Amino acid sequence: MIARLAGFLYLFTNATAIFAFYARTQAIVRGDAVQTAKNIAATERLFRLGMVSELVTIACVVMLVLALYVVLKPVNANLALLAAFWRLVENIVLAMATTHEFAALRVLNDPNLASKFLGLYGDTFRIGFFFLGIGSLIFSYLWLRSRYIPRAIAWWGIFASTLMALAELTFIAFPHLSSRIGMVYMMPMGVYEFGLGFWLLIKGVRHATNE
């Protein structure tokens, strides 16, 4: 039951996160602070709905993390707790990121300042996604150890999570690379979370003996 709840939450939080991203990108024009401010003012309701969707995502991811901890605790309680704490740090940071969007809304009359707050929003998300990557890496390793799910899914999770964590650190150190690579590096994580979500929701977990 808890595993199926985790599967549902994987799918639900990805859907709400995608909507939040869509709502935000409708207004933002890269390199044009004035037009971005105008767009946000013109579509403020959609922009705010995106913020709401972000907060719903965060709240539900916390529920997801608890569900993952409960399912994977029997495999290795210490590692499951470490992964849960890293994912909680992720969501605390992401919740704080939303405050930068509130700040941008308050200073739309100064497009350059609003743009700086939106930039901080993006930087804060990068920090949060680093913790997402390392937390997901440990959970993926525990899935592999448990044999509760197909090993191929677990191995893909290890790959996708490692890629995300390393990419975020790389972009922090070398920010110019971010504009060249874009968001392609996030696709493996999306495939992993949707795949795992569907598997858990439909199949649940296998009752296997731990290695």
Which terms would index this structure?
about 210 residues, 8 helices, mainly alpha, about 0% strand, about 85% helix
Short description:
The chain has one domain.
Describe this structure in words.
It is a single chain. The chain is an all-alpha fold and 211 residues long. It has one domain. The protein is 83% helix and 0% strand. The protein contains eight helices and no strands. It has helices at 2-25, 33-42, 44-72, 77-106, 111-146, 151-173, 176-181, 187-203. The protein is elongated, with a radius of gyration of 18 Å. The model has no long low-confidence stretch (mean pLDDT 94).
Give the biggest beta sheet: none
H and E order:
HHHHHHHH
Principal-axes geometry comes out as elongated
Q: Fraction of residues in helices?
A: over 70%
Structural domains: how many? 1
- β-sheet strand percentage: under 5%
Rounded Rg: 18 Å
The class by helix and strand makeup works out as mainly alpha
What's the topology here?
Elements: H1 2-25, H2 33-42, H3 44-72, H4 77-106, H5 111-146, H6 151-173, H7 176-181, H8 187-203
Helix pairs in contact: 1-3, 1-8, 2-5, 3-4, 4-5, 5-6, 6-8
